[in-house]
Specification:
mainly alpha
């Protein structure tokens, strides 16, 4: 048991686990669950839009928790100087999604569900672009943070 404690401490002091957990959570909702919901033949479009709005609101809250955990781990591990840009970009993406894009998309989903025909909006494309950017940042950050010392990972340590 005493040999396990240093390994756990080492693992939890690396931002890699948060990056990969956050990546998996976001990819699961955005890339798997959402398209599957609209492909299900028994789910009506209004129901799928309503479930989607609730799902993305919950995901957004969980992502803020992940960001806070990442900030704590980065600070406690002494990697703040190397990770400030990564954390800053992730924070900006989350703020843009929660303050601008999610409210607009939720309102549009409600209008479409009630039968309105709306012109195309940049909001959906902007959200998808930011989501993919976030996934790339999280995956790359997790990979860099999990590299052993001496393999070009000095910026992440």
């Amino acid at each position: 048991m005493s040999a396990l404690l240093p390994k756990l401490k080492s693992a939890f002091s690396s931002p890699a686990w948060i990056c990969f957990a956050w990546f998996g959570m976001t990819a699961g909702v955005s890339l798997l669950a959402t398209p599957a919901k609209f492909a299900a033949p028994l789910i009506t479009r209004p129901v799928a839009l309503d479930v989607g709005a609730v799902t993305f609101a919950v995901l957004n809250k969980a992502e803020f928790v992940a960001l806070i955990l990442l900030l704590i781990v980065v600070r406690v591990s002494g990697r703040a100087a190397q990770w400030w840009a990564v954390c800053g970009v992730l924070a900006l993406i989350l703020v843009a999604q929660s303050a601008w894009l999610l409210p607009e998309l939720t309102a549009r989903a409600g209008m479409v569900a009630s039968g309105m025909e709306l012109p195309p909006s940049i909001a959906h494309s902007a959200y998808a672009t930011l989501e993919l950017t976030k996934l790339v940042i999280l995956f790359a950050g997790g990979m860099v943070a999990s590299m052993p010392a001496g393999q070009g990972n000095s910026a992440a340590r």
